Amino acid sequence: MASTPRFLQGVFSFTGNGLDKPELIDPSLSFVVPDGVTAQPLYFRGGNSSAELVVVTLLRDGSPMRMFPMGAKSGVNIPLRVVEDVDPDTVLELVVAAPAGTSGEVVVDFGLVLV
Fold first, then answer.
1. Are 2 and 109 in contact, with CB atoms under 8 Å apart?
2. Centroid of chain to Cα 21
3. CA distance 44 to 109
4. Distance (Å, whole) CA 23 – CA 36
5. Whole-angstrom distance, CA of residue 58 vs CA of residue 30
6. Tens of pLDDT along 70-88?
7. How far is CA 96 from the centre of its chain?
8. Which residues contact 99 (CB under 8 A, 6 or more apart)?
9. Residues with Cβ < 8 Å from 61, sequence gap 6 or more?
10. How far apart are CA 63 and CA 43, in angstroms?
11. CA–CA dist 48, 72 (Å, integer)
12. What is the pTM of this model?
């Protein structure tokens, strides 16, 4: 069975509204698993230009699936050791949360495979 890689990537500006109030980073970081395949998230790499902690969260149909905290002016590389199948028609989205008033840019490189 062949697999197809998919990547959600880019550099995006954000303004925080609180660590408990995540917002969609950008519409390009929303993905609907196509009919007839399953998706498996494989890794997340990210960077945070702000002077505060930010949290990027992978949502599955609006519920948190994975959280990726990034310290001030730092980055992370997280291979997902526990790989879960994500069913067709599931919506995957990346959202960001930061302390109120915090602004900066977040770098996102999220990889998944369709099988």
1. no
2. 15
3. 6
4. 29
5. 10
6. 999 999 999 998 889 999 9
7. 8
8. 16, 18, 19, 52, 53
9. 90, 91
10. 18
11. 6
12. 0.95
